[in-house]
Amino acid sequence: MVSAEVARTIAGIIGNVISFFLFASPIPTFVNIYKKKAVEEFKPDPYIATVMNCMLWIFYGLPIVHPDSTLVVTINSIGLAMELIYLTIFFIYAQRNGRLKVIGWFCVEILFLGIVASCTLLLRKTHTQRSAIVGILCVIFGVLIYASPLTVMMKVIRTKSVKYMPFYLSLANFLNGLIWVTYALIRFDLYILTGNGLGALSGAIQLILYACYFRSTSKDDDDVAKPSELQLSGSNRPVKPPV
User: Fold this and answer.
1) Among 35, 81, 199, 204, whose CB has the most other CB atoms within 10 angstroms?
2) CB within 8 A of 172, min separation 6: which ones?
3) C-alpha–C-alpha distance, residues 165 and 149, integer Å
4) Number of C-alpha atoms within 13 angstroms, CB side, residue 196?
5) How far is residue 144's CA from residue 34's CA, in Å, rounded to a whole number?
6) Rounded Cα gap, residues 176 and 19, in angstroms
7) How far apart (Å, rounded) are the C-alpha atoms in residues 88 and 106?
8) Which class for 74: exposed (0-12), middle (13-18), buried (19 or more C-beta within 10 A)?
9) CB atoms closer than 10 angstroms to residue 25
10) How far apart are CA 19 and CA 36, in angstroms?
11) What is the DSSP string of the chain?
12) pLDDT digit string, tens, across residues 21-56
């Protein structure tokens, strides 16, 4: 019989794989930016937010904060690297204001993480206390990122069309949330459970909307270019970070 620890590891590995593809989902967008040598109306906000979320989850998963969370650290480290690559491409081809925005927010995020790390490590001595502080911040940022697809969902309801809500990205978000909920339940982790429970719920609602409005979507909509599709519907958020 499979032990709880082995089951948790398997769930975490599956979560890493699904999360990797979610992090990779904006690649076509940045390939287009590279080909056009211009960012046009593209906004970096979702990726700036995801960088902060990844950094917080990496800190949360460190042994000094929340031991035995290696798989949380691995996927968020990969995600952080990918998001930084995306922002670098944006930075190269953006106008001056766009570049200043990326630099400014990145400095703010580093400063904020430094303050959080210092306060957590100096003022809290146990893993439980440290996990609580960082975990709550992770959930707060996660909720803010999960709120971004609400715009797309409202648009689907209003237009009765799913052309701005890609099915496979919604499905991946749902499965990602579900597998990390399973991971959190095997060895109970309130913060991973809360964030990904909301993620699974958000993904489920998107799939329900897709089922409701797929038939009412015009066939011509499939051919409409959707340059902001990933930016709006995925973490997602922005592509949502895995945990």
Assistant:
1) 199
2) 18, 21, 22, 25, 203
3) 9
4) 27
5) 29
6) 6
7) 12
8) middle
9) 21
10) 28
11) ---HHHHHHHHHHHHHHHHHHHHHTTHHHHHHHHHHT--TT---HHHHHHHHHHHHHHHHHSTTTSSS-HHHHHHHHHHHHHHHHHHHHHHHHS-HHHHHHHHHHHHHHHHHHHHHHHHHHHH--SHHHHHHHHHHHHHHHHHHHHTTHHHHHHHHHHHT--TTS-HHHHHHHHHHHHHHHHHHHHTT-HHHHHHHHHHHHHHHHHHHHHHHHTTTS-GGGGGS--TTHHHHHSS---PPP--
12) 999 989 998 999 999 999 887 888 889 999 999 999
Per-residue HEC secondary structure of 169-198 comes to: HHHHHHHHHHHHHHHHHHCCCHHHHHHHHH
Compute and round to an integer the Cα radius of gyration of the chain: 18
List of residues 6+ apart from 240 with CB closer than 8 A? 22, 50, 142, 145, 146, 173, 176, 177, 199, 202, 234
User: Could you read off the pLDDT of 220-235 as tens digits, one per residue?
Assistant: 554 444 444 444 333 3
pLDDT band at 184 (very low <50, low <70, confident <90, very high): very high
Amino acid making up residue 236: N
Instruction: Give me the residue label for tokens 């990844």.
Output: 54
Q: Which tokens belong to 140?
A: 């707060």
In this prediction, residue 10 carries a pLDDT of: 95
pTM (2 decimals)?
0.86
Q: How many angstroms separate the CA atoms of 70 and 21, rounded?
A: 19
Place of tokens 């592509």: 239
161 with 218: CB under 8 angstroms? yes
Residues 6+ apart with CB under 8 A from 47: 26, 83, 86, 87, 90, 238
